[in-house]
Amino acid sequence: MAANIQDVFMLFGDSITQGGWEPDLNGFGQRLSHVYARRLDVLNRGLSGYNTDWAIPVFEQVRAFILSTEPRASATREFKCIAKHTDTHAPKVRVLAIWFGANDACIQPSPQHVPLAKFKANLVHMVNMLKSPTSPHYSPTTRIILITPPPVDTYQRRADLEAREPPLALDRMFEVTRAYAKGVQEVGMAEGVPVVDVWTTLWIGADRNERELKKYLRDGLHLNAEGYRVMYDAMIATIAREYPEVHYDNLPYSFPAWAEINWENPAESLLLNKKE
Q1: Best label site of 1, 48, 242, 276, fewest CB within 10 Å?
Q2: Is 186 helix (H, G, I), strand (E, B) or coil?
């Protein structure tokens, strides 16, 4: 959990989120941590291999979205991403990015497969956990962003799986993943939540040629450095357009720049600046 100094920009997703800090990839999490330094703590809550069915029980354990302020004996065992929104002194999630679909779109009989209708319902459930005033996890100040899964390059993916020991069969299909990306867009439109359309952005960048997706994908599924660069730019553009108040350029430092410190009496100028 972040310390109670800064609020939080939380990234919740699968391995593509988890890999957002991977060395040499200049991932989106790494870059967000840089531009939001001294403004928001960027938390990696990526869960490799997870689908939305498995993500929801984890999401429901986030203490930030529990209204009660009563202490709980099990607090040390909870998935502490952030703090309760009713606690004015604790960090809150100012921005939440939800990025699933790459695993939900696995084809049967993969245990990761989640039917498209259930996948969309799961996203709606996560969004409404925070947006609905009747939800015990209500967090009205959290800005939510949905992200579509990237397109899958079945040529790369098949080669990667067949090279394993033992060889594995192709587990994702191009058109199936496209349908799940469209599903994210539909949920965003229905729920009034901005969507970073990674699928379309990469597809257009590849000249709508599946074999050209290799410029953005390292194994047919996971983003490479160029893929993360394009995704990061699209996310920042979405924040600037939809939530300009939490764009890094519009957030003050939590503590003043060194030249603004009262050098004669530093303590009085070093009070936490924590504005909504």
Answers
A1: 276
A2: helix
pLDDT digit string, tens, across residues 106-122: 999 999 999 999 999 99
Spatial neighbors of 273 by CB under 8 A, at least 6 apart, are 252, 253, 254, 255, 256
Q: 39: helix, coil or strand?
A: coil
Task: Give yes or no for a contact between 145 and 97, defined as CB atoms under 8 angstroms apart.
Answer: yes
Q: For residue 96, which of 21, 194, 190, 27 has the smallest C-alpha distance?
A: 194
From residue 122, give the alpha-carbon distance in Å to each of 23, 98, 114, 211: 31, 11, 10, 31
Give the other-Cβ count within 10 Å of 90's Cβ. 18
Q: Cα(2)–Cα(53) distance, rounded to whole angstroms?
A: 26
Instruction: Report the DSSP pairing between strands 40-46 and 143-147.
Output: unpaired
| pTM (2 d.p.) | 0.90
Residue 145 near residue 194 (C-beta atoms within 8 A): yes
